[in-house]
Amino acid sequence: MFNALLIYKSEEQQSVAISSQEQQALPEGDVLVRVDYSTINYKDALAITGAAPVVRSFPMVPGIDLAGVVEESSHSRWQAGDKVVLNGWGVGEAHWGGLSQYARLKGDWLVPLPEAFDSRQAMIIGTAGYTAGLCVNALVDHGVSPEDGEILVTGASGGVGSIAIALLAAAGYQVVASTGKVAETEYLHALGASEIIDRATLSASGKPMQRERWAGVVDAVGGHTLANACAQTRYRGALAACGLAESMDFPTSVAPFILRGVTLYGIDSVMAPLAPRERAWARLARDLKAQTLESVATDITLAQAPDVAADVLAGKIKGRLVVDVN
Ligand code: NDP
């Protein structure tokens, strides 16, 4: 028997509770993982609260990421005792996820826990941090270098934003953090931001072409903010868009793309192939210090997950929520 958080749905009513389950209840898969830690990402908060139709079948164990130890495997890459990390692949949406003491998964979905981290540290990073790694790699691969100018990070105090700031600063970039929490100025400076701006300066409707400022952008919020960021990106600069915390909308024009050669990269962490996953984790392992990780972490229990999910959607959380499932 093991404990898991379960989301139930009946006649449009959704409820969430910790439930004791037998291993036979787990979905199909060739690797059984004993979970050490999971996390609450923005998408987990949507799933747990039911604020968006993230969950595709019920009952569902939420948790789009996990770190743990392989207990049984019939997959060629994994053996009992291997330390592994999982991000995405529809886990926590269509396949029982990480907010559980056990998960049965496809071995193809797993990556090895980087040697630099223990399983808690890997989940301080979690899917938000791994996505930040994908975003930074997109800018670096585009050719944006520290000499090219400032990098804007939106949703700066959130999970993606916090880790993106730390990664960019470690790689030598000058980072400008856009936040709704100006009281977190010290936190954002400590992560490596050189300047903090109020997100209200970006969240109203603006002209499609504005004064050029950003050599690159990591955007976690979408909406007018992403539109304004495009309008302010320098000639041949690039943006990596991964999120919708402000809005799913993208009210802009083609002007920045056809007149300034701006490139907008879409970042998806869920179905990303193994190679970009491992490259993102390699950057995280190289550039994130233990002290930085502690500064962004808040530890919670499985029982606290439903309450904090609402706070995530209200934008009240700073950094990353790590869930000790045991
Ligand atoms: P968090 O909740 O940790 O952070 C989101 C941050 O966005 C908040 O902390 C806040 O930062 C800012 N924010 C919240 N509400 C608004 C608003 N109304 N307008 C503008 N800014 C707002 O979420 P994550 O960092 O985990 O995820 C960020 C986004 O990235 C989410 O939309 C998530 O779904 C998406 N995502 C996408 C992935 C992908 O594969 N594409 C993977 C992981 C995440 P502040 O107060 O500093 O402004």
Strand content: 25-35%
- Helical segment count: 9
- Cα radius of gyration in angstroms: 19 Å
Distance separating the two termini: 13 Å
Order of SSEs: EEEHEEEEHEHEHEEHEHEHHEHE
Pairing-aware structural class of the strands and helices? alpha/beta
As an assembly, this protein is single chain
Number of strands: 15
CATH architecture title of the largest domain: Alpha-Beta Complex
What is the CATH third-level topology name of the largest domain? Quinone Oxidoreductase, Chain A, domain 1
Hetero groups in this structure are:
NADPH dihydro-nicotinamide-adenine-dinucleotide phosphate
In the CATH scheme, the class of the largest domain would be Alpha Beta
Protein name: Alcohol dehydrogenase
Pfam families: ADH_N, ADH_zinc_N
GO molecular function, one term: acryloyl-CoA reductase (NADPH) activity
Organism: Pseudohalioglobus lutimaris
